[in-house]
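Summary for the steering committee. The consortium agreed at its last meeting that each partner would contribute one worked example illustrating the joint modelling workflow. Our contribution is presented below. We chose a case with several input lines so that the handling of multiple components could be demonstrated. No manual editing was applied between input and output; the record is shown as generated.
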Amino acid sequence: PQVSIEQMLMELNPQQRRAAEIIYGPVLVIAGAGSGKTKTLTYRIANMIGRHNIQAKNMFVATFTNKAAGEMKERIIKACGPDAVSDIWAGTFHSLCVRILRRFGHHLGYDPKYSIYDQDDSHRLIYKVYQMHSVEDKYHPKQAAEFIGDCKNNLADVETAMVHRVYTTQDEMMAIVYRDYQMMLKEANAMDFDDLIMNTVMLLENFEEVRNWAQNKFQYVMSDEYQDVNHAQFRLLQMLAWPQNNIFVVGDDKQSIYRFRGSDIAHIMNFEAVYFPCNTVQLTINYRSNATIVAAGNGVIKNNTRQKEMTLIANKQGGQPINDVTLENEHKEAAFVSWLIQKAVKEGKRKWSDFAILYRTNNQSAPFEQLFLHNMIPHKVVGGLGFFQREEIKDIVSYLRVINNPKDDAAIGRIMNKPARGIGDTSQDHLQAFALSHKVSLHRAMKMVRDIDKINKRTGTKITEFVDLIEHFQKFLDMDVLRFCQYVLDQTGYVRMWENKATPEAQEKVENIQEFLRLVERYKQEHPDKELSEFLLETSLLMDFDNPAADNSVKLMTMHSSKGLEFPVVFIVGVNEKVFPSWRSKDQEDIEEERRLAYVGITRAEEELYLTHTTQRTNFRGGMELVEPSRFLDELPEEIVRKMEIPQRN
Ligand code: ATP
Ligand code: MG
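What follows is the complete predicted structure of the assembly.
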């Protein structure tokens, strides 16, 4: 160990230390942004391992990102040594559930080699179900996705939904779609993201073997960002913690920002009642930001009505005023931000990674990305269309998914004619129709191609060749993951397909594929004994949680993704009415959620904060439109704001 546990604990203030030293029973740490909640949670784990000889393998720790879990482990290793946390279960709810499901999913009829459907796969499946009921022109896949997600986040299975969640004829249709969607997922041996949590809870509730295993193993249950748990996650933690109730949660009700994904502030508000009697610790000192930034955060959030009373006191004094900057349009906005960043780096005052640009929605990143590219500012867009969502990467992963789990219809549909092998769109439609009417997977339908009259003999042969190719690959599954990927790419001619195109875009795709192979290589080194199926499960989660790399670059992300992070200089851009708060906000509750998001954004800053808004913006039709500054700007305490009008030179 590089530092002793004692030394490490000395870093904590008395309230933090008190929280870190309560090992048994329920504990709620509720505190404002930057008050050291995550730090306290981390140090508590180190304390339990280092001073109480509690084994890491008995801990279940839910974090907002897998990267956050990784950082936690690194910190603990410094005090407790490298082996101390090797078998801790720490990660997002999704990745923790994946592991439980791999082990016990068979109770629910899943093979351990199940696939995970991402949002795109799941929307396509919904569309297919719509087609079965001839309603594809009437509804958008988002509508069913929302209904189904809402059911799953609240642990309503199909039967429950049919009885309790149907109020209108549309609901009736959606419940039917839910039923068929679940049936088809099951047939594909696949789960969507929300299934991961719901199915784990089902396992715990209905199978004594699983419950006993989990409750014996996980003696200590912990969660960061508890303000954003949904009902299913709440229930999962509750089941795991039973019967000792050694449950330790940290959160900030003022930072609850995932209501649209079923997060419910009630869980943190009711914690003390649900886990009575419980130890509650409040942390009131902010160590992250200077006094001005803390005042800005407090000034905005105090306009909300529904929250626990609490003030946050800054540990750091002073700070320059908050910059409220008016610009002509989003291109000028990008130019201003780019200019300031370059200036500070050139003068040697800052490095690229000191800066973060936060916005309300992913599509706002475009003008910044373009200009940064042009100005050679190293930058990374976090979230959005991540690496794993790129066409070529999804294709490769789809090949692997099909080999691993041939029932995976979403993956097989994607690659059966890519590269082109003579299975055209019409033949694919016939296969689909046959699979649907005979209730079999696409793979099965392909094997039965001789029974499909509408597909001619020549195409039939091509289809059979494809099925044989997949079966051929399955013989090599125990090859190491990297060599296997290379073999598949080589045999299918997938890389050659892009190489032959010889366009700059195709060249970029080839480079991305090489990057993918480097990732696989690294994975192989870190996990020498893991099989392809585990690799696939882990990468499918990466798609949703593409994390910021710790390299020296400017980070761009939504305020939602910035939760838990901190940066010396933060720009919140597009601080305009209808952008932020979003035009979707209908009522007071929506506005309060947006205001919590503003609080999250503001409190990411350590030293400098810029809020920029424009007088005009490009609207969705491509024209320029006059826009208003956001109401949140008026809520900043006047005495700490510096208004900047950037001279317009046209
Ligand atoms: P958020 O609400 O944004 O998740 P948090 O409450 O989890 O914030 P941390 O991220 O744990 O806060 O801590 C914020 C910053 O303050 C970190 O840089 C951390 O190292 C620092 N910090 C926390 N506690 C102390 C302390 N007692 N002394 C010095 N620095 C501290
Ligand atoms: Mg935190």
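Residues 69 and 161 are 34 Å apart (CA to CA). The pocket of magnesium ion (ligand 2) is lined by residues 37-38, 224, 564 (CB under 6 Å).
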